[in-house]
Every structure is written in structure tokens, then in C-alpha cells.
Amino acid sequence: MSNKYKFLSIISGVVMLLQFATIVYGQNVKSSAEDLKLGKLKLAVEANPNSIKANENYIEAVTVTGSLIAKQYQIWMKRFPKSAILPFAIGKAYQTYNDTSCKKYLLKAIEIDSGLADAWESLSLYESSAGNTAAAINYMQKATELAPLNVDDAYHYAVLHRSGDHVTYDSLMLKVVYHFPTNEKASEALALLASDACNAVEKVAY
Question: Fewest CB atoms less than 10 Å from the CB: which of 54, 76, 100, 118?
């Protein structure tokens, strides 16, 4: 091999090494930036564990289905045992994935603060998705009692009775219409009642 080709071969090898080093450096910089961001989000939770927003920001930055988040929240729950928001936050995150792990965290949240309406709501949504209508009704009833102005809870509570007693179902749906007349849920309630009506007279009435 001539000196010219040897030189070109060396140059080519150097270029490849530089390209590889650039890629590795870029990956390390990205990883460091992500670690720094995650560290700041963790500090925000630790500074105010009862902040829903701080918890949501942290959860959004990690993989909910991974093991990291569960381990981290176990640490925080031991460190801040009086915080109902910590178990609620991870419980709600799991509930959005219909993960059975959500239930133990949500129950822990209401054990600490039985007045946390959102935790009762999340429990109801989970039980409903699992086909446990009776449990879903009980949990949503508690949520509506704690947050009577929450139209979504009132509507969901009514809908949960759809396959049960017709009189109770109609009454709860009409309560949604009466208490929240300008909300879109009122229109949805009337439309659902009309679709469920047994005869033409009832359909027209709704």
C-alpha cells in the first residue's frame, strides 16, 4: 500500500473516531441535562410534597410504568408520612393506566385525608373500569358529597346507575340538569335520558 493510501486510511479512521466521540458526547450532554431537570423536579416535590403541580411535573418526567417512580414515592411517603397528596399523585397516575397498583395508593391517600374528593373519584374510576359497579358507585357518592359543585363527578355518579334502578338513574341525571343547567353535562344528561327512554312520550319530554 502506497504512502498516499496509508495516509487516507489514517485520516478516514480519525474522522470516524471524531464522529463517534461527537455522538457519545452529545448523548452524555443530553443525559446530564435530563438528570439535572429530574433533580430539580425532585427537589420541587421535596420542598412542597403537598403540591399537586410539583408531583404532576415529576411524574410526567418519568416513566409511570417503570420501577423508578414506585421506589421514589415509597421513599417520599416514608419521609412525609402525613402527606395525602404523595400517595394520591402516584395513585392517580397509575389509575390513568388502569394499573391495579393505583388502589393501594389511593386508599392510603384517603386514610391520611378522608376529605380528599379527588382520591375518591379516582378510586371510583378505577373500580368502574374494572367492572366493579357497586364499589364505583360507593366511591363516587363520597366524592360528590365532598365536592357537590363538581359537575363531572355528579354526572359520572348518575351514569353509574344506568344499569340499575331506573327511577334512581333518572332522578340523578335530572339533578345534573337542574344544578348545572349551563354546563355541557346537562345537555349530555338529557340526551342520554332521551336515548334510554322507554317510549316516544318520554323521549319528547327530555
Answer: 100
Question: CA dihedral in degrees (58, 54, 128, 150; nearest 10)?
Answer: -160
In this structure, which amino acid lies at residue 79?
R
Identify the H or E element spanning 90. Answer: helix 85-95
CB 49 within 8 A of CB 85: yes
Q: Is 169 left (phi over 0), alpha (psi -120 to 50) or beta?
A: alpha
Q: What is the pTM of this model?
A: 0.78
Look at the alpha carbons of 36, 42, 47, 48 in this order and tell me if their dihedral is positive or negative. positive
Cα dist. 21→16, 18, 34, 87 in Å?
9, 5, 20, 43
Identity of the amino acid at 125: L
In three-state secondary structure terms, 203 is helix
**b (16+ CB within 10 A) / e for 122-132:** bbbbbbbeeee
Cα separation, 198 vs 28, in Å, equals 66
Among 91, 149, 86, smallest CA distance to 124 is for 91
**Type of residue at 162:** R
Query: Length of the chain in residues, anyone?
Result: 206
List the one residue out of 65, 133, 68 whose CA is nearest residue 100: 65
